[in-house]
Amino acid sequence: MPEPMYRVEKLWKRFPDGTEALKGISLELWEGACTLIAGSNGSGKTLFMKSLVGLVEPTEGAIFYRGKPLQEALGQVRQSVGLVFQDADAQIIGETVADDVAFGPKNVGMRGKALTDQVDEILRRLELYSKKDTPPRRLSGGEKRRLAVAGILAMGGSTVIMDEPFANLDYPGVVQVLQLIRDLKKEQKTVIVLTHELEKMLGLADRLIIL
């Protein structure tokens, strides 16, 4: 029987003040699927996202990645899984769009023509090539989310997890993000979207999980 990409078993998180979140969550996330994880604000969606990549330790329960305990697979997770935060500005650091996409590959030693070619190819795929010399602060909200995904793809990421990707976007921005998700699905990437605006995603999601 095939192994799910993620298997989550009875996940709980308790904070020092007694607050509880993620109360006994058990679920599976499958490679190649577009999974919508829905819940109201405060339901623990962002906490769950951070748990999937080891940024938050659960109080109880376990997470397995490709059959291995998460802590044993963190190197693989951090190469393959990328996060797009609700505030995309928080993860954009380059002075230009091209600089931002190049940051990750540069840090693993890519240089010269190989770097330029990779950045240009990713920017074309994400329809950002015409903005390559633009400061990221001048991008629209939808374009900033595309830029965050470009950085993930430039590092060879195969899984994109998006936290409230429609937050603070106008209608054109929402359309851009929906098209981005369609494009990722066409490329057979694994897409996990955490949002309380599930009506925007129902037509694209392969699975729906409600926290």
UniProtKB/TrEMBL annotation:
InterPro entries: AAA+_ATPase, ABC_transporter-like_ATP-bd, ABC_transporter-like_CS, ABC_transpr_CbiO/EcfA_su, ECF_ABC_transporter_ATP-bd, P-loop_NTPase
Matches recorded under Gene3D superfamilies: P-loop containing nucleotide triphosphate hydrolases
Pfam families: ABC_tran
Domain annotation ABC transporter: ranges: 6-211
Molecular function terms, GO-annotated: ATP binding; ATP hydrolysis activity; ATPase-coupled transmembrane transporter activity
One GO term describing the cellular component: ATP-binding cassette (ABC) transporter complex
Identification of the protein by name: ABC transporter ATP-binding protein
The family this protein is said to belong to: Belongs to the ABC transporter superfamily.
Annotated signal sequence range: none
PANTHER family linked to this entry: ENERGY-COUPLING FACTOR TRANSPORTER ATP-BINDING PROTEIN ECFA1, HEAVY METAL TRANSPORTER
Alphabetized UniProt keyword annotations: ATP-binding, Nucleotide-binding, Transport
